[in-house]
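tool_call: predict_structure(chain=1)
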Amino acid sequence: MPTFEVFEERSQSLKITGTDDSIKTVWNKDYAVQVTLSGTETLASIDAYDVMTATGLPTVNRSIYQVNNKIIPFVICRSKTCKPINKAYTRWTVSTQFESTIKQNNDEANNAPIAKPASIADLPVRVVPVFGETEKVIYQDKSDLEVECARTPAKNWWTEPVMEKIPTLALQITQYESYISYETLLDRKFKVNDDLYRGQARFDWLITEIEPTEVIVELASGPTQAVQITYTVAHSPHLYGWKEDRALIDSQYLVNPGANEEIKLFQNDQPGTKSIGFITIAGEQRGDQTGAPDYIQYEQYDDIDFSSFLRA
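tool_result:
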């Protein structure tokens, strides 16, 4: 088996391109690989794959960029190419390309080299806001008169309700962790905050996505395996957070809820026709049938202590 010795070339290049709030950073760096054959080996023993994967070269999708004994945490090797530079196939050039893994809400300063940290916990955290929208039914319009808009002037319910568009916010939090198991990833996904988080009450934030990537990080003590993880944490735009809201609207209501309760149907002005109306949390007919309904909330997500693992 040939032996391989890796040398860093002095040639390197940097390209930064920007569009709106997106910045892409690309570093190019070359390495020389010296191949030494044993006395019985021939040129046929030299395999390009063995050269490409020689110890000391970056690993695609794993290695973080390092330069002058510093690292750039969110710039990772994305490609490698190699070619021989002599006819004896004993010396090769390996060209590598590193790209920033976080582009949105970025700037040049975020991709500056930093000193090799003492531990994984000392690496920085990136937070990228993502804005979107959703809709909700409204029962009164936005005018000063607060006109009822869920029903026609004849007091029949509109077939298609009036919808309000509301903005949404999610945070993509990317951080490094020393190790994480599949079981832990499953335990964290689709969980809500169990206490105040970013100044918001319990159940206001939900972890909707988790994207882990195994990486090799150069610490002050040497290279180590770690995991780069992006958590997508969505803030609920609704009054009761991520609890399931159900409007207390029904076609029937209870009279004397309890042992002697009686079920009655909401009626239109026309006898024998069925309608719907507002009920109370106890199932009774609500006294005021105008405006918006009351709601009941159900907790369909388990909660978790965000502060035990999220670093931002």
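agent: The domain at 3-115 is CATH 3.30.70 (Alpha-Beta Plaits). Proceeding to next step.
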